[in-house]
TrEMBL record, chains A, B:
Residues 80-528 form the Amidase domain. This is Amidase domain-containing protein. Coiled coil: none annotated. It comes from the Eukaryota. InterPro entries: Amidase_dom (IPR023631), AS_sf (IPR036928). Belongs to the amidase family. Gene3D superfamilies: Amidase signature (AS) domain. Keywords: Hydrolase.
Amino acid sequence: MREYAKDYRSIAAEKQRQRQSKIPKDWLIDAQKYGEATNLLQVPVTCGILDGVEREITSNYDATALSEKIRQGVWSVEQVTVAFCKRAAIAHQLTNCLTEIFFDEAIERARQLDLEQREDPNCKALRPLYGLPISLKDSFQVVGQDTSTGLACFVKKPADQNSALAALLLDLGAILYCKTNLPQTIMTGDSDNNVFGRTLNPHNTALTAGGSTGGEGALIALRGSLLGVGTDIAGSIRIPSLCNGIYGVRGSVGVVPHSGVRDLAVPGTDGVRSAAGPMATSLRDCRLFMKAVMESETWRYDSAVVSVPWRNLQVKEKLRVGLVEDNGIHTPSPPIRRGLNKATQLLQRSNDIEIVPLKLPSIKEIYQDLFQYMAPLGTEHYSELFNRTGEPAIPSVDTIGLMSVEGTTLRGFFEMNARREEAAKKYLQLFCDNRIDAIMMPVAAHTAVPWDRWANATYTGLWNYLDYPAVVIPVDKVGETDLADDVVHAKYGPEDANLYRLYTGPELYRDAPIAVQVIGYRQMDEALINTAIFADSIINGKE
Amino acid sequence: MREYAKDYRSIAAEKQRQRQSKIPKDWLIDAQKYGEATNLLQVPVTCGILDGVEREITSNYDATALSEKIRQGVWSVEQVTVAFCKRAAIAHQLTNCLTEIFFDEAIERARQLDLEQREDPNCKALRPLYGLPISLKDSFQVVGQDTSTGLACFVKKPADQNSALAALLLDLGAILYCKTNLPQTIMTGDSDNNVFGRTLNPHNTALTAGGSTGGEGALIALRGSLLGVGTDIAGSIRIPSLCNGIYGVRGSVGVVPHSGVRDLAVPGTDGVRSAAGPMATSLRDCRLFMKAVMESETWRYDSAVVSVPWRNLQVKEKLRVGLVEDNGIHTPSPPIRRGLNKATQLLQRSNDIEIVPLKLPSIKEIYQDLFQYMAPLGTEHYSELFNRTGEPAIPSVDTIGLMSVEGTTLRGFFEMNARREEAAKKYLQLFCDNRIDAIMMPVAAHTAVPWDRWANATYTGLWNYLDYPAVVIPVDKVGETDLADDVVHAKYGPEDANLYRLYTGPELYRDAPIAVQVIGYRQMDEALINTAIFADSIINGKE
């Protein structure tokens, strides 16, 4: 047996001990008390750790409303920060959603902002995210913190530079206070790894919290954060947004700075690029984030941004929305069909929205190429990272078949690019010919599924392949009436049938969130967010 | 000896006859009369083909001023179109600058626009390029016209679709009337090919018209067009702009729609992408073009655009300009040094511009990689195209060594990408640390050189590699005082010395234009154009 400089188990044990030490004793909950519960959403307010003001701050506002309160001086930045640190600590103890905890640094910065504010009352006016605690997926670098991405070989190597976005968010006035869990390889639908373990879904702990930005999903669902940032190369913002019943925006590539995010791909891998975006409890918070970022000089922070500015576009008063009921390879499960129907019917009742049924072409071929784009040189680089500390692949890496992807050649790579250029033309034409403002469709063929069963990203990956922005809007939750139906309803062959069988009815899936995604034109993120806010206002009666 | 379906010579002969037939008899000049002259700039107004109004229309305005006259109804669109068709015909007979001639279609469209205008006087208000004749590099597809790019194998295959930009320009009100010459392979500094032959430089016919957009360069220098469109992957807009003493803008990749431009690269080749941009007799015409394009919905025309809108940015009143005197591998020739000094001194006299001397890092390594990016799979695809009709490579293809580029692997390609990402960070830092708005530097180490001697693009290619926008501003012309100096002044070794020796003094180089290029931040095309217009107003006393 090979000898490792250090075995992953001891690295993980030490890392977990250190992480635990970052939670003040007074904030510890009796986790055993909640061991039997599957739905943990109420625990933060019932566990007795938060005082009345902290419950108020963390429970009753979205980031937009909270920002207003901070500007009005209702609460100091320190009060707000402490409240969210506490609630994040509770969320973590319930779901294992955090990787790096730096509450002390955050509270110290909050105090400084409060001091500055006393000396110059105008200083906050200029900073659109002033005083707002923002959580980040572990892959973003924050000075002094590890960026292990759950790989043992990267533990205890604190960053000496911020990711471009972390630097920008600080300049915009935000408070960074924690980073969140993700899958080994950052490629699966289960936020599980050998260093930090698995993040649980607070709606139903028997189900996955989703991935790869699953830590954010669980943290935000429990309101341990109101605004977090994920990345999405095949669905990694949208899948956990669906699983955890929150809003999420996959921005177009480069619109939100992405440089300095740890990416496990071979350096220089191009083709389909990961994109960053916000996850939140309201869609207007996603807008707050996107507007703040797109109004700033992102190009000074990151040499790889796409400089699409926020334009304060007029909101359209009449919308045409393409409706895609299924993607032609994976049949949506009964709750997903019900959720999409519900959203469609609500939109149809509006005089301002016209629904246009659509079919998406070439999904199977596109998804095959997307999977190859994920690892054009094969997956040896992952094995090499695992082998440094002897860690095994997590189960969900096997579920998606990642380690069996073989590399292609330069010619094969360009052939994929050429096919993608053709697909891009076809899809633009589909949008233009139908004069649609957006497409509405499922985020996946199913809700959150039991652990380690999330097998593909055919509903989400298409939009990464084409680089169209996409927004997840929660619609409902699985309830008593969502019965399983017969597998004969699976229309697309044996693999589809296997996936379809996963849904066994409301007993196992109780409270699993149901969502839709809304997709807009490439780089038209602002227009899409406007459209999605309009749709959300009808579906969920918000803003 | 191999038998070809058809030999390139017969294809070229037939194509040239057809082209010649597109010029009305009344517009033919006695070309022999000008066989001895090297400077042809005055011939269009002295040859007797243009009447007084046509001379006025084509000689005394830039496109911006002419557009105003058209809107005022001083001249009909037909009058303007006929005048430019005539003058383009003259320019072509002098320099062989045109490939496809479609004057009839253009004049027919002009009549239609005039008719529409009579019926609805407001129709022109909405179209920013209303009634303006615009010429296109041959590689842009125009319905009904060949897109041979000077390759015999592509002759007699008329396009059934417009390039995205051609479609957009028509929708913006422009008149398309001709396409222009370029080098075989679209990769050299000499616009020469086996189908159409060589374009001459109207300033000095002993020198190259530059490439690859050399036909536009010659045509615009002779005012056979006021506004043309080129493409630039290593300098192909800027080199002919320098050689022909005109303005040219290499936009950032994707800002000006580029889809449907014939690209001889293997389909799907990515890495360094070609960018389109305007060439004109004034910089404000380049702005007119860029503003019109960037204000339109380019993303509806082209699935590959980068949606950076025109923002009507405030023009900065104080500028910091980085001055790069040479690029560290090729020593500028005496006229280039004089031109840059002249521009620098003029700018320094302004209270509003601060000059910051700069050195550019890593040019040699960057240029090596750029050259590999031009043909990552090697150059067999060119040979294959040549072989279809038995045509040989043109001399300038040998000069640049294109056919000896060997392919790389997918891993090698990603390694190049990774080096480029690092270079991009370094260069952004150079710009930001020095707080510069732009860099000013030579366009090449030399002016236009004798035929088939243009050997590299080390001054221009850098900005394609990094995707920074760049503007060419003419500064002066070679005159009596521009003596050659000793080769000891060549600082960078034998290859530099060979290049340096090319400049033999004002006898051979008489009237060769001298220019500078001004480079701005990636995708900040609008801000760069503002900066360049300001610099131009000081250097050339224009707007």
